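Lecture 7 notes: from sequence to structure.
We start with the chain below.
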Amino acid sequence: MRISFLLSSAFCLLPSVFCFSQSNQNTFLYREKNLLCEKQLNSKECTIHTSIKPFNNTKEFEAVSDSIRQSMSGYVSPRKKKSKVEIDLIPLFSFMPGHSSDRTEYIYESSIGASLKGHYFNKLAFNVNFLSGNSSYPKYIDTLIKQNAVIPGLGSAYPSRQEYSYQYYSGYLSYSPNKIFNFQIGKDKHFWGDGYRSLFLSDVSNSFPFLKISTTIWRFKYVNLFTWMKDVTNPSGMKNDFLNKYGTFHYLSWNATKRINIALFESILWQGTDSNRARNYDVNYLNPIIFYRPVEYSLGSSDNSLLGFAFKIKIGKRYRQQFYGQIILDEFLLKEIKAMNGWWANKQGVQLGFKWLDLFSLKTLTFQTEINAVRPYTYSHGSVQQNYAHYNQPLAHPLGANFAESVSFLNYRYKKWMLEAEFLYAVYGKDKDGKNYGGNIFESYTTRPKELDYGNKFFQGLKTNLLYTQLKLSYYLIPSADLLAEIGVAGRQEKNSIASLSSTFFFIGIKTGIMNRYLDY
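Predicted structure tokens for the same chain:
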């Protein structure tokens, strides 16, 4: 049995191996980390279903790990024979001071915590993460925190001398009895899709309790995700007043060929107990196979259900270029779509993206661009408690609905260095004059103006333009601990007929990269 307890002051004692070293562990859901293995995951030989994240470490991932370690250090050290039992305690750390032009005070992210992980006989694995921190943000994020009492992606915001404090928990217990099944239970985030954004399920919101069953047979991978979430729109802000909501998600991924992947998605969310009725997890939605629309109708239920379709196509001699996309269907009637009359309940969204690895044959240079568009009132529900959200943040796209967005990245890596440029342009419709125009998914769609039963269109309401750009340079100090130094500058401009807001913020610091933090909306 090997037990290693590592303190923040002893980072230099960490072995120079990559983080995918333990079998049956999940990788951290961190985009920059996933970029390191993008080429290997999309190679001709790899059979991993790339749209289901976080990845579960398998023997196939060990080969990916070796390739990444070699590209970062120039060699691959001999892989140590694994112990039957391994436990690691790794410190988590973040100190990212900065300055925003729209604030007189400095902004910063400061947190400390730990990650405990291990495995037993390569079948049973666990991971527990804890972070406690104090933070301040650019004005536009600060405004959202004041409105929602939630720090984006981290949960409840508590007032402190340093502005806001928070405590974040995540973790899971994973069991793989064989190569076919993997069972996980825990509290964590999930991301389904090949893009930067996901219209199905993303990691924008806080972590939530879940039970996940993954089944891999031949070229198919089927995921059942059963969840317990929170509606925190109650104005009291007290946790005892938060309302329960539950969700079941299905995702079927099929590697039809070495170049083509096709996936189907479905989900249903329903509210728990409220002032009018008592309701817990509905056993009818525990069925791991059946589509939920028929079940919902058979129950006479008005629960919130969605359907989706996704694809990825790899082209080029070395599979270096890929097209991907998603279609999400909330509600629709074909006759109303054919009529092209803007019926309010035709609620759909679409994503189209393109990625080019080794752009112009320059190794480790990656270009990615994608377009996301979601019609008004999508993801919302008649009961706010049943909207497609958790902890006051969307479960899919951070802009909610009634928007179109273009986001592009140019990323270059040289050994442990990574340079990335981001360009984002979005147009969306805000509510105005006290009317619900379909962009805010936390509003009940029953509050829409009566004149908008028909004639709905993109960007209705207060049409707003958003431009966000960022340039960031990172250096992996200790890849095995996901510890990196980072420096960057970002600019944001939001403009409509009423106001024009702009800010530029600069940041520099050291952090442990274990999760995505979205500030580009």
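Points to note: The longest strand covers residues 462-478. Helices lie at 31-36, 38-41, 59-73, 139-148, 292-298, 334-339.
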